[in-house]
Amino acid sequence: MTAIDDRAAAAPHRGQSLRRKEDPRLITGRASYTDDLNITGQLHAAIVRSPEAHAKIVSIDTSAALERDDVVAVYTGEDMADLLGPLPMAWVPPGVDVQNPPHWPLARGTVKHVGDPVAIVLSEDRGAAIDGAEDVFVEYEPLPVCMDIETALEDGAALTHPEIGTNKCHEWSLGGGDIEAGFAAADVIVERRVVNHRVSGAPIEPRGVLADYRAGALTLHTSTQVPHFVRLFAALILGINEEKIRVIAPEVGGGFGAKLQVTGEEMLCSWASRKSGRPVKWIETRSEHMAVCHHGRDQVATVRLGATKDGRLTAIHSKILADMGAYLMLLTPAVPSLGAFVMSGVYDIPAVQTDITTVFTNKCATDAIRGAGRPEATHMIEVCMDQLADELGMDRLELRRKNFIPKDDFPHETALGIVYDSGNYEGALDLLMEKLDLPALEAEKAELAAKGIRRGIGYSTYTEICGLAPSRITGPEGFGLQTGLWESAIVRVTVTGNVVVYTGTSPHGQGHETTMAQIVADKLGVDPAQVEIMHGDTGTGAMGLGTYGSRTTAVGTEAVARAADKVVEKARSIVSHLLEAAPEDIEVHDGKFSVKGSPDKGLALAEVSGVAHVQPEKMPQGMEPGLEETSFYDPENFVFPFGAHACIVDVEEDTGKVKVVRYVAIDDCGPAINPMVIDGQVHGGIAQAIGQALYEHVMYDDTGQLVTGTFVDYALPTAAELPSFETDRTETPSPVNSLGVKGIGEAGTIAATPAVVNAVIDALKPLGVTYMNMPLGPEAVWTAIQEAGQ
Amino acid sequence: MIPAAFDYTVPGSLDEAIDALRDGGEDAKLLAGGHSLVPLMKLRLAAPTLLVDLRRVPGLHGIERQNGSWRIGAMTRHAELQDRHDDLGVVAHAAAGIADQQVRNRGTIGGSLAHGDSASDLPTILLTLEGTVTAMGPDGAREIAAADLFQDYLTTSLDPLEIITEVRMPAMDGWGHGYQKFTRRAEDWAMVGVAAVVRKNDDGTVAEARIGLTNMGSTPLRATAAEEALVGQPLTAEAIAAAAGHAADGTNPPADRNASEDYKRHLACVLTGRALREAAGLA
Lengths: 790, 283
Hints:
Domain FAD-binding PCMH-type (chain B): 1-174
Order of helices and strands of chain B: EHEHEEEHHHHHHEEHEEEEEEEHHH
Protein name (chain B): Xanthine dehydrogenase family protein subunit M
Pfam families (chain B): CO_deh_flav_C, FAD_binding_5
InterPro entries (chain B): CO_DH_flav_C, CO_DH_flav_C_dom_sf, Diverse_Substr_Oxidored, FAD-bd_PCMH, FAD-bd_PCMH-like_sf, FAD-bd_PCMH_sub1, FAD-bd_PCMH_sub2, Mopterin_DH_FAD-bd
CATH architecture of the largest domain in chain A: 2-Layer Sandwich
Low-confidence stretches of chain B: none
Distance between the termini of chain B: 44 Å
Largest interface: A-B, 28 and 22 residues
Number of strands of chain B: 14
Keywords (chain B): FAD, Flavoprotein, Oxidoreductase
CATH superfamily of the largest domain in chain A: Aldehyde oxidase/xanthine dehydrogenase, molybdopterin binding domain
Oligomer: heterodimer
Number of helices of chain B: 12
Number of helices of chain A: 20
Number of domains of chain B: 3
Number of strands of chain A: 30
């Protein structure tokens, strides 16, 4: 047998594009989302929300609503005095003062943004609840609004929270190396204002809650990425013992960070269920989602990037102004800082500095949306790299290659003291250029230009920090998150030899039921179809911190793998005992635990499990019955996926319309578990980033009214706007975990916006356009062309 | 989203439908394809007390050629128009670009014209082709010319008790045509749209040109200055460019978050050039 055959026999499923186990139920409409669940006796909730961006609540008249036959109850913030505390914000960076005004599930006295909840109406019928909400009359006394972060800190600016006395929320810095010396050593410094505008996560399933408090216990179904966080904070806020709360994330139709949250609605419905003695169901409408589910990004940065005249980077400094919105939610102020950790990108830069100032405005809160800080940082770096190349008169890829951290320099400690686990940036870029066929693209340029079409090519070479964990860095004494970020898993072999895996992560579309099954199946010598992955339920066993920050494979699946390894160890002991062979001579081969060199002599997992459960007396002396193991895993380091992306755009000179004609992505997330699942994550990530670069923009007017309240105005791109993505991979293992894997859920979103923007600028260079900020809608592009021509 | 409560009736004849409208009072609304009305109801921007569904009213369907015109039943879906480029010409062209296929499968020509949204495509086509609608009311039927139908934003000259039964689009045999719709996303309403139909003399000069503008005002508009500039000219790229420069003359387009007035005027000129080149076979 060749070495390759051996590997395939030992791990026949890893690396295969197995069809996703979750897809049949998702595709055929058999999945159960929160709105599919109903509990006898439930009430439907509708939430009365503020039409004002900032106002004092003068009075709330609920009498007309209560007079309706079909309205059971109406509650306001005053009714909720029994809450033990406001909604959580989980970041306390050591030594940094963060202003955190109280944020309640229902407003108390004032409203701070359009959509701020004021009252909840409960009815037997959902339509009637909405009718009832229209009969709650709230008198508002409007207050001045603060809508612009760039003027929010000026004297005389309207204050979002007058009691704080400033719109400033906090300041935070991260630096390494001698930044002044770095810029002093530079021959060329480019400085650009880089805008990462506000976007919405916009999962196709909006949020939803079904809370059932009875007999002293709360069961809370919620469309969330973080059931364990929700349970913890429900316990703390509602004063219910944690073990009396079960939080279940049913099928979750996309999250993108929008459901990495402990929400007012979850607490409100749980509270209302306890108060009313009935289950309470609330399903978010799309309009509500656009107005009140946290947004992402919204940063304006001044980025300085310095280099010697031969193109050696000397320093990068980003001064970031970040819009918090009106309140701090779970991670709101921490998000910009996540980008600071990779502010030097894939480059060896001796001095790196990020200074962040955060600002309150009368808008919906921002928080983590796919990428959370890293897309912003990558955008700053990669757009400025092109700007610097132009300034130096140097090819932009040559500038990149010259400054790449070389592949033999990993693990690599950056100027910030962060240790990049592994990388091969040249390898990814080489493969990209192979796929791209640059000469052919260039050759078409002149022909297109004659027709008024300007073609541009943009690049982004990126790395990101993910696999959130490790607790020693992210925790209270480190970065300041008030939690450990480990994961746990239970691998249980059933009597009949099938496998049930419990994970504390909470996937919501990523495909972990398939990829985790592939890993476990290989380890235990069974088919992935025999491995069931249970997740999203605090009542089923494994504790965990949820799915976000591209952590589920690198942290959660590693925990699963380690638990499976323990099961393998126990199974080998049993088999060695039964076959009278040394445990180290037992291997998993071709679906059997067999003696090395005698593949015929062996037991299938079902036979081992049969002994462990039915005839434990045949097990080694003193061994506990059963075949089930638990693992808790807290990694030593983050993981750092990377890659090289290219975007090709055609821009209509006479209208400014940008069409993405090709998008080529090379990503490296370590050895693939399921290439198709990776492609799916990359496709979605790129689509979301193209959305930000060209289409999507959460907009408010000067009075604080939301302009983009529906999908008519919030231009989520569709398949018609996107090219067929071309993806490929390099595979550089991470030394951090036994699987060698890195996260891939956010990589596309993190990498792609600068590739698009650089492509548009490249296209318009012949017309004199040198720089633009997102979003590149047609009028913005056309205006830039006009201004450049003057 | 759940609309406010409303009553619903499905009359079996036009007379019954008119009676239902009369009995329903001022907040009774006709339901055709529902793809303008129902979204407004879901957002509670519209709250009719009664919906009179036209789906069982006979005689409102079908596409037939009659006396040099196409008679299109008011309940004809966009999807039924979209594939008939060979005979319906610019009507099919415009219908094929409305929103997405799901909307085209439900939305109707009569509903679109009665809604009277100047950002919609078919009102512009009706105006450009100088078509008419037939409206049936308590006092019988009357024919309303396109130029008289569209009065203001979402406002037509239809009486509250009148129902569009059919649409007449002149067949435009021998005319060249083009429709150019500029959107951010394929499914969006036109930021600006331009319809152009052109008839040439035997010597190749323009005998007649009609240019209609979508979303350039409170109603669909004709770009009369551009039309006049073309008449008598050879249909060359140069003449087209010169005429297209007048496409936005006299317009006062509504700005929105996607496009300022100036940009819309500019787009109207660019798209008029494209539509005319398409009509001239120069595209």
